[in-house]
Amino acid sequence: MPHSAAAERRKSALVRRGGAVRGHDDDDPEIVLIDTDGLHELAEVRRVSRSAGWWAAGLLLARALVELHHENGETTGVVTPYSVQAEATLEALRDVEPNGRPLAEVGTAHRFQGREFPIVVFDTVEPAYGPSLWMGQASQLPGSGPWKQNGVRLFNVATTRAQHRLYVIASRERVRTARSGTALGHLSTLLNERLVRSVPATRLITPPEWQPANLGPEGTRLAEVLARHVTVTDIHDEHSFYEQFADLISQAQHSIWLWSAWVASRVRRLLPLLEAAVRRGVRVTVFVRDPSDTLQQKQHFTEALAALRTVVPHVVEVNVTHEKVIVIDDRTVMMGSLNALSQHRSREVMITMRGHHWARKLLSHLHAEEFSQPPRCGACTGEQVDLRRTNSGTWYWHCYNGACLEHGKGKHRAWTREVILESPRN
Description:
Layout: H1 5-12, E1 31-35, E2 46-49, E3 52-54, H2 56-71, E4 76-80, H3 83-94, E5 104-108, E6 117-123, H4 134-137, H5 146-159, E7 162-170, H6 172-176, H7 183-192, E8 197-200, H8 201-204, H9 216-229, E9 230-235, H10 239-251, E10 255-260, H11 266-279, E11 283-289, H12 298-311, E12 314-318, E13 324-328, E14 332-336, E15 348-354, H13 356-365, H14 368-371, E16 385-389, E17 395-399, E18 416-418
Parallel strand pairs: 1-7, 1-8, 4-5, 4-6, 6-7, 10-11, 11-12, 12-16
Antiparallel strand pairs: 2-3, 9-15, 10-13, 13-14, 14-15, 16-17, 17-18
Helix pairs in contact: 2-3, 2-9, 3-13, 11-12
């Protein structure tokens, strides 16, 4: 690594050396960027406000990093800007706690001021696409307001807690394109000067037959740790994913939760399995897009949805939903880019993760229970009711029946009922 005076000054702005730091060589860096680009829906942020949210990629990678260094006898602190991400990460870690004792401390940057850890995982929750969140906007450029400047202070707190190594979980593309003078811009400079190793998460979370390469010693070990907790199915056609999915449906004992944005002929192949699950007492709940969606063929959607309803007691129509999530028996989670009820020939990736605490936290964040029982329309008593969301984030039930007496007053004046949530979700 280059060790010019300027480079050392820039590095010290991110990592403060502790009193007992073990040595590093060129293949054992102090700063590692875990690049989330290419993880698709796993790296999609579920926002709870305009500037805060959570993502599955961060908690999955943080859990593996914590376990990796726990095996080395090193203590890890996991820092994130948002309490919602901290809570989700804590739940994921509870699934790998030995004797009920936490493997790591997890919290927001405010909690860790004045403290240090041998290993720090800084989960920025900054994806490649869409508007930047807090850390992506943290800046000391002229004209930056207090919120952006405070973001820089929190960024510095998070990145200066490490005595030995700092892992930053973020989109490399977001870091690479960050402006000079911003928090991520400083990290980009270190990356360009090769003071930071970048490890692509797509090479860590891979199908079993793929061998991770060029990851360095820590990257290779991290891939091994992840392999203990996740099962990856790479979809070239329908077979590899659906064989695993069919096995999980057949083994389900009490619940199947399924979010699939689109519904098509694929449904008919799954109906016998779902019907068998319902008959043995498994609660099956499916969330799909409502008929207003223009991306699916109307006739195929109508026929497939009708067939699904003959078997599944709980089918919820959601306006512009995009989740691709499956949760079985509140323990097994499948997430990725594949629509389980409509996939045809596209190449997709789905990740299978197991953990009771993590699964329950995910269901809570998705408000599965609260959204699982659509009411009948209060005006026409019909069942053509979908779930919608206002621009401010309020969820409500909406009757889309064109024959409803209240429907003729304009599309925004149809019968509605607000959904009262225990905790907000955007």
